[in-house]
């Protein structure tokens, strides 16, 4: 069962009208009343109570196309229900699903009590994506790992064996600050060989240069919109571990010309470390530029010399290589 | 077989070749074996291998010595031409100390030797050695890059291509042999005064080639299939991914075919299996994995089309490639580097560019559907390579290079002077009216054989070099550098200038000085404001002077000013200085442009 606060937030993002039932409860055959409200990230939200026994929570069953899907106890107070005039305001219920129910869409989701009395009209779910948000994102539902930093990226993989057809959305966090979001659907041969979602479950987050400020950082990858972390993390790095990151960022991801652009972006470095970094990159750009300028000048000069005096590099035996032989041939 | 002595007129009395030899798993070991077999027909040859290589095999008649044995007999061999086979891997490190002691001809198999320098310095932990080599080769730019490598481990992969380190590693060579004009241009660019000879890479038929039918059967390739082949360790530079995409694009237009990728595959370099699946080529691609080099030619013999692409190019001449062409294979290459030198009638050469993939697809389609064209290309390649790359042609090229190196003037390198300076108590006794550079001990005392250049317009009638420091009296100071001073010929240059007469283009002036000076040579630069203290000039402050000198390939080891006295290495207001001098050592021939300034700072940063 989700907390009321989470449900409140989730309720504000509830599915659009087709998946949402009218808030007014229909007349019940007995004293029990209830209704399904919406499919939210907190679960499938509804309420139920027994007017004859208001202090006894009602146990409810959720059905998908008349097949039992989950059970729950409507035992949570939700002020939003009061404000929405959805029933008497208590108790509420949010049922989280363990996985997608079998069957075809559109699908009728209904609420009943244990005796089979319907509680409110069913709601219609038109596609799996509408139900996905209500799936229980328990950490053991996911199979994944953060593999480490390589090529200026943080690499890893993750999938949900219960829903192999649906790629997992992941988010990169530094502490509690979300840095990036990505879909774990990159194809890799090693993952395919290991039987992980046909190989299409890799992810790679580009590491932002802003991480190179010398301060300690804690990188985590979480399932999007949850606090479930992928194994292998968190990755900690700070001044002691930043050097390999330097190398990765500089060597592979940032070619010299791109370094210059990053320097321009870091126009207001705010720490000694960052200033040092910017200075180093700036010097590097200029030094490498000099090396290349000299290389081009010298090679042009060498080509001119060879063009003016081809014999200078040819052996005096007449065997001047393939071209000469080709002419003879 | 031609009789001994019949082939090479003017051949040397013998030669000494430093090289790896079989059974070392090194392509150059096989190359040298075949070369020695040819050379030893006319010239007595001694091969020197690394200590511990007691199993080294050489052709009959070639004496093989390990390093210690060579040193024991060095006196008897010292007058013979020495040849050093230099590849870009650890097997070649051992020969450099010998090359410094006994300069000879370097056979440069790869026009970038950065990885070899790595093997000599970084791998054994000699980071300062690596930094020093970068500074020698690339001056202040190299020093910046070397410092950043030492401090922050910063190094780009492209440094291995863009910074070939040839000047440093070939400093002691008397000549060079390369196997392509492409490599020759690279070498001449870095070491312009080195005599370079392009010698065709020899073609030696492989000792054993399996029957094509047997090879095809072992791979599961039917006789009616067109067989494409790519060989060697699968790297992105070999463009196997491009070939796969090209084949996928034209699959419907091709006759039944198979693409054999014969080489070790590392998925982190290129995930061939995933790409093959993605392109739906599982049924036509065969990946037998690692292929031993001796099996290359059996595969080549069984293939219809050898796709041998490289981009970016490293520049090395591939012995395997020469053998493939000599064996009559139909080969597709990128028209760059040494591959561009293959005659147009002997291989399909494709220009690299944004539309490379469709052009490759087009070429593969034409070749796959036209057996006559394949046969024509193969026959041309076989005839050309077996003629121009015959072992006797290569051996004659070596003899020619030896003659050329022997006739070349000695190349200037390090100064031979052992510098010494006046001790402090003797400096203190010097007359106060001597110029600052003498009183500060910036110039060394005279040593025999020291070549001195006096420059500038601010010399007193009595030459302090002769009167105070014991140098032989020399010619009158010349006002500026003339064009007739040989490169690298000056051990000590003393330039006494008046600030108001200082050349405003100091970068060019100092680059000229760099050219005429030997490595390790001393430059003493004295600047005096004789007439007007307000005159501005390029060397106005200590930092500006240091910057200029470093850009010009010098390392400053002394900087002092006359006023206020005693404040060495401190910048005072220029108007307060009457006289300033610098002592700098030439550490590099690399002269950087004013764009590269040690005091340059990034936008928005304080200096």
Describe this structure in a few short sentences.
Chain A is of the alpha+beta class and about 325 residues long. Chain A has helices at about 5-10, 80-85, 130, 190-195, 240-255, 255-265, 270-310, 320-329, and strands spanning about 30-40, 45-50, 60-65, 65-75, 90-95, 105-115, 125, 145-150, 155-160, 170-175, 175-185, 185, 200-205, 215-225, 235.
What does this entry look like structurally?
The complex is a heterodimer of chains A (329) and B (607). Chain A is of the alpha+beta class. Chain A folds into three domains: 4-132, no CATH class; 139-239, Immunoglobulin-like, CATH 2.60.40; 260-308, no CATH class. Chain A has eight helices and 15 strands. Chain A has helices at residues 4-12, 79-83, 128-132, 189-193, 242-253, 256-265, 272-308, 322-328; strands spanning 32-40, 43-50, 58-64, 67-74, 92-95, 107-113, 123-125, 143-150, 153-159, 168-174, 177-184, 186-187, 200-206, 217-223, 235-237. In chain A, the strands form four sheets. Chain A has a four-stranded antiparallel beta sheet. In chain A, a hairpin with a 2-residue loop joins strand 10 and strand 11 (177-184). In chain A, helix 6 runs antiparallel to helix 7. Chain A is elongated, with a radius of gyration of 31 Å. Residues 1-28, 239-254 and 317-329 of chain A have low confidence and may be disordered. With 607 residues, chain B is α/β, with parallel strands linked by helices. Chain B has three domains: 15-113 and 164-202 and 402-407, 3-Deoxy-D-manno-octulosonic-acid transferase, N-terminal domain (Rossmann fold), CATH 3.40.50; 212-384, Glycogen Phosphorylase B (Rossmann fold, 3-Layer(aba) Sandwich); 424-586, Rossmann fold (3-Layer(aba) Sandwich). Chain B is built from 22 helices and 18 strands. In chain B, strands 3-2-1-4-5-6-7 form a seven-stranded parallel beta sheet, sandwiched between helices. A six-stranded parallel beta sheet of chain B has the order 10-9-8-11-12-13, sandwiched between helices. A five-stranded mixed beta sheet of chain B has the order 14-15-16-18-17. In chain B, helix 10 packs across helix 13 (293-302), helix 11 (240-249) packs parallel to helix 12 and helix 11 (240-249) packs across helix 15. Chain B is elongated, with a radius of gyration of 30 Å. The N and C termini of chain B lie far apart (72 Å). At the A-B interface, helix 4, helix 5, helix 6, helix 7 and helix 8 of A face helix 6, helix 9, strand 7, helix 12 and helix 16 of B.
